UniProtKB/TrEMBL annotation:
Keywords: ATP-binding, Nucleotide-binding
Pfam families for the chain: AAA_5, CbbQ_C
Ranges for domain ATPase dynein-related AAA: 45-178
Protein name per UniProt: ATPase AAA
Transmembrane regions: none
Organism from which the protein derives: Mycolicibacterium aromaticivorans JS19b1 = JCM 16368
Record family assignment: Belongs to the CbbQ/NirQ/NorQ/GpvN family.
Cross-referenced InterPro entries: ATPase_dyneun-rel_AAA, CbbQ/NirQ/NorQ/GpvN, CbbQ_C, P-loop_NTPase
Any GO molecular function: ATP binding
Start and end residues of each CbbQ/NirQ/NorQ C-terminal domain: 191-273
Amino acid sequence: MPQLPGELEHRNGATCIPGGERPYYQALGNEEAVFKAAYRQGLSLLLKGPTGCGKTRFVEAMAHDLGRPLITVACHDDLTTADLVGRYLLRGDETVWVDGPLSHAVREGAICYLDEVVEARQDTTVVLHPLADHRRQLPIERLGVTLDAAPGFGLVVSYNPGYQSVLKDLKDSTRQRMVAIDFGFPATEVEEVIVTREASVTRSVAAELVRFGQAVRRLETGGLREVASTRVLIAAGRLVAEGLPMRDAALAAIAGPLTDDAVVSRGLAEMIDIYLAAPA
Ligand SMILES: Nc1ncnc2c1ncn2[C@@H]1O[C@H](COP(=O)(O)OP(=O)(O)O)[C@@H](O)[C@H]1O
Ligand SMILES: [Mg+2]
């Protein structure tokens, strides 16, 4: 498959080596300056915001600018400390230690990005605390060692505050060790630029999609899994770029993914007719 501009391969725990073109990232405010300042000071970062608002792309651009490898881990509710730190594996008739992505990042001085960190098991905080604060150390219990993070190591975690249950909210003690950056949806103009570029559509198509997306975001979100993110607007734009009528593109790429509920679907379809009915 041809690589899209700025797109990086995303296998869990895979390392992206910086080089080549900068991943396309359109700044929304002062987040680039805050990230770089925090990174240089060895402070960990907490990126807050809904899915599809550019957090992953932002980290990729920052890793590129700072010239550091990036190791991304998509957290999930089965993710254990061993998944992050490493474990003994059987190789033939030998047991060998295999570093997890976090240990790897700590040794290499890479930027480690834990996406949706609150999804991970609570016990992972045991290793995250000493890493996130001034100690910058990773205890590896199974090996009986504590690693000092190599220069250049950076810890970045993201989570979606609206989406998570209160129970799974990050512990205060973890949060206090981090510098936070809030991601909202981009301002109208900025989002139009992003959709135009990422979907390869005209500015006026992008403007219509953004206007519709903003209308969806203003709805009471009951019944919607997620709000209409920049990501789904881009997906709709890509379908338009392939020649689909605006209405079909929006139904397939925006309304469909957002809800399974028949009544809510009908409501969204009506909005699409109002906002995007004109032939593209
Ligand atoms: N500020 C931005 N600059 C460039 N592209 C963006 C921006 N915000 C969103 N995007 C686009 O939206 C898509 C989803 O963003 P992503 O970084 O994956 O979101 P998140 O990690 O917050 O879920 C990206 O692949 C990119 O095409
Ligand atoms: Mg992401």
